[in-house]
Amino acid sequence: MSIRQDVHSSGIPVLCQSCEARHRGVCGALDADQLVGLAKTSSKHQVEAGVELVGDAETVGSYSNVLSGVVKLTKSLSDGRQQVVGLQFAPDFLGRPFKAESEINAEAATPVALCSFPKTVIERMMKESPGLEHRLLKQALNELDEARDWIVMLGRKSASEKVASFLVLIARNIDPAANASAPSASFDLPLTRSDIGDFLGLTTETVSRQLTRLRAEGVIRIENNRHVIIDDMKRLEQRCGD
Amino acid sequence: MSIRQDVHSSGIPVLCQSCEARHRGVCGALDADQLVGLAKTSSKHQVEAGVELVGDAETVGSYSNVLSGVVKLTKSLSDGRQQVVGLQFAPDFLGRPFKAESEINAEAATPVALCSFPKTVIERMMKESPGLEHRLLKQALNELDEARDWIVMLGRKSASEKVASFLVLIARNIDPAANASAPSASFDLPLTRSDIGDFLGLTTETVSRQLTRLRAEGVIRIENNRHVIIDDMKRLEQRCGD
DNA sequence: GCGAAGCCTTGATTTCAATCAAGCGAAGCA
DNA sequence: TGCTTCGCTTGATTGAAATCAAGGCTTCGC
What we know:
Two copies of one chain form a homodimer.
Chain A: H1 17-21, H2 32-41, E1 43-47, E2 62-68, E3 70-76, E4 82-89, E5 93-94, E6 105-108, E7 112-118, H3 119-128, H4 130-156, H5 159-174, E8 185-188, H6 193-200, H7 204-216, E9 221-223, E10 227-230, H8 233-237
Antiparallel strand pairs in A: 1-7, 2-5, 2-7, 3-4, 3-6, 8-10, 9-10
Helix pairs in contact in A: 3-4, 5-7, 6-7
The structure holds a DNA duplex.
């Protein structure tokens, strides 16, 4: 798949189409020369749901921007218990600077499009361009804030509060219309019931029961097992506990 | 309390005594001129256990290095349920750049010594000195790794695994002798049973029962309710689940 | 020393979510 | 078409940790 190298109206070349849209990714922090240099080394991938991204020959030794879809980060205990420790939506940055191996598995939860760059190129640009480190610092601090909310959820919320919180989180990240003020949302769940369980520290069965309850109480509607419609976000948010 | 401004053997002035020891804090990333400038604006505080650090007049609008003691970061749900979301040991950096208010409470868990700087000064230096942002990025990424291990613990570990994991974490951070290879450790717990419960997503009673069990099985010894002795770290680590 | 307040432990009981078990429905394949 | 597999739901039972309850240690100030 070819890479667009046309020039933005501001005079800054655009590395990939999607990087143009929102600037939480890598590209928004670089100057024109760097973007041209980076474009020569980048490659776009389309990946099916279920594919391991770490350990994959194409992604080892590289950083990526998520262009579309959802990537799920997981860790496992020695006996096989699994926990989701992060979800990356477009245009998040994927990869851990300053560390060779991370013990974290990354897997495409839905079909995913990635734009990848060699680690060496990014690391050189980080030294040259303070703006890039600044951007990565901001993303890391945001992820840390999210992780802390997650910690509160796992440590102190009931199963029904966890499921409600999960739906609100996904709605905010996936449904383009579900902005802060929007009273409703409609989206496909990017995870199976089992993955949702691994995200919330619950079993598949408990997730299923709580979704059934929310549906029975008219808080959400579910079509085809995957598509969720929330008519009244406020009502759902009241069940999040916070 | 006066601030040491003597000169390190390398020619770099030392801002505070403790910053000299390890360099995960702010000061290690600055050049000589900046350190002298920073020293003029810094102030050292000694704080008793239980004191709120955020909302405190002296720490609002400032960043701090933890010089000694343990600071506990907590978040609360609307009905009062509380969860510890971070523990800061010397020489961690305290404060959230790029964000005015954070919803997070910081409290001295033990007597704490802090070295504080006005936010404005640090933020100016961040613009001038890429090294400072680099250091903050590294700390943020480390904290993110820790947060993800914590998420696994809260989501998937049993009460007894949680308590064992907590003891190992504290031993590594507090007992200066408990390095990777050390087979034993000895330290005072920086938290009450109730705080440990808020850290692990458990109740006081459950924490107490699990500690009693570890003691009964000879894995740990406890003196005066607070002092813990671990003769065989390996044996304790085997109970962490990972 | 004495009393009070916190912190901690222990026991009895309850409860919420896990586990065990079964069946449904859609998708993929022979 | 029929078979298998996978994801999901629902029901019955169990179990781990919460809750409720009481009492014991420390530490403090008086």
